[in-house]
Every structure is written in structure tokens, then in C-alpha cells.
Amino acid sequence: MKIIYFWLKVGSYIAVLLGFFLPLNAIAMMSPTSEEGRSRTTPCVSSSPTIPLLILAGQSNMVGYRSNLEDLPPQWREPQPGVLWYSGEGEWVTLQVPTEPFDFSPSVANGEGFGPEITLGVTMARQLQRPVAMVKYAQNGTDLETQWNPKLEDSLYHEMMARVQRAIAQLCEVGYRPEVAGFFWMQGESDAKGDSLNETLSDRNRAMNYAQNLTQFISRLRQDLNSPQLPFIQGLIFLENDHPTLNFGTFEHGNTVRHGQLIVDQTVNYTQIVETRYFPRHEDNLHLDSFGLIHLGYYFALEWLEMHGLTRKSRSKLSILEDSFSCLIPNSLTDYSGFNPSTNFTHSGLFFTQTARSWRICAK
Prior knowledge:
By secondary structure, the chain is α/β, with parallel strands linked by helices.
């Protein structure tokens, strides 16, 4: 556990990247797109080139509610070749910020922003050495118990699936044959919500039911996509029990939901988790900030690649990350919440600091 803790902590300092491994062979096998879904949309031509399709869903930390475009270096604001993005207009375009908001996620704190798709898409395309496509459906402040429940006909699950099927159909129309390759989930904060002064039994049940609800969600998702081994990668919420926030109240059941997430990771095949407790967060103590979202997308990609045997086991995570940087220099040295502000270290000529609040990222 100490070793895992160490690497998580190291990763949280330096995981802002554009491409981090040495070139790897492209993946040989992906999960198939649902034939049932294709029959309801536009059939794909069998001779069309395949493209991995990544699905992103969840609530505000998947939306990127506290993202700020000004935090991104200029090269990350440009179109990202090799990454297709299903836009708010229902068209496949080259990935470029801003990616939020959508009509179904109309609110981000700074008017426009981005989520973990930025680093997820770029990392996946570079390491697979082929184009990837991403479709996202996320809404702020939504719970799994009712709002994402696949058993309810009008739930967000069905709205998400309708958007995914439209995205698949249009990928076929532009000349690709999509293969649903992974599902990325950042959600659970709303299921942890509860206020000791006004808490109801349903608040407690929502948190206690999280493992069961997520297991059923994954089962239905894989069934509807006809992909029983679809990789499901979830971000662990960073909330604890009685977790205070600025302007969003108290979240009584953070650890309960986290425990449910860990149960799913241990009991449901082809799942992985990303620990987010060491990722940079906004002062509201509920949302990841821009740098936290950059970390989240990178680690989503890392877990997917590890699931498919596309990382080199002989190399440490630090040496893998090191490949990505020519420099990583803090713009400011203000205390960084959650870390010891006195600890700085260097590695192979690169300077990393736990006190950095923002970073200047230099392309290789």
C-alpha cells in the first residue's frame, strides 16, 4: 500500500502531459459495437477502417465544472489531430477546447471549459498510434440512485445511450466502423450528499446502495452495447464522511460511496479505478480544478492501457511520465491544499513541486 500511495502522490505532481510512453503497438482487439444498436441506426460498411470509441459520463467532475481555459497552454487550445469529438451540434469534429457546455450540461463556472477528455483523447490516440473517437454525456449534480438509473425509462442513462447511438451512426456516415472500446465514469458525489440537520433515510440509502446500483448500471450498459467485457473505468470520488464544501453544503457519506466504488472494482470483471484524492481541486472542496481534470484524463488513459497490456511492466511510472516532458515549471509557488508545501524535488533535470498552484507546460 505504501508503494501505491507513493506513486499516486508522484503521479499527481507530474501527470500533465501530451504523450508519455514510447511508441507502442496498436491494440489488437476491442469490444464490438452493438449490432442491435447498428440496426437502429446506419449500418457501417465492413471495409471501413475501425476506430475505438470512448464513452464518457457522470456528473460535474466529468463535465469539468471548475475548468478554466486560461489554465491551458496555447498548444492545448489548438485542434488535437487524431482525436474525434462528438460536438454539441451532433457532429464529429476534431477535438478542441472548449468542449463544454452542452445543451444537456448548460452550466460551467467560467462560461466555457473542458473535462478530462482533453488528456484522455490525446493520450489514447498517441499511444495507440491511431485515431480515436469520444462521445460524452454528463450533467452536474446528478445521482446514480434515480437520475442515472437504467431501470427508469426517463433517466439520464437512456438519454446518454440515445446520444451514443447517434454518435455511432454518424461515425459510420463519415467512413469509420466504430468499436466501443471503453467507458469512463466520474460520478458519485450526489449519492454522498446528506446534511446531518436535514438528512433523510433516502440520503443514507442512496449512499449505501451505491455498489449495487453501479453493478446494475454496468451490467445494463454492457448488455445494451452487446459488449460483456467492455472496460469500465471509474474515478473514485475524493469526498470523506462529513465532507465540508464551500457553498454546496456537507456531504455526509463520502466514504460510504467510495467503499461502494471499491466493492465494484473488486467484484465486477473488467473494471478499474482512478484515485482522485491527490488531484488538484478547486477551493470549493468539491470540484477538480483545471489541473485536476488534466490529471483525471491522463489516469483514465493509463488505466485503460494497463488493462490491455499496453504499458511496459519493466518501466516505472515515473520513467514513463518522464518521456513526456521537456520542462514542467510552476508559474507560482503558493501553498497547494492537501500537500506538504515544504517538499520539492528534482528528477533528471526536471523540477517538480508540491507547492505549485499552476504550471507552465512545455511541449517536447
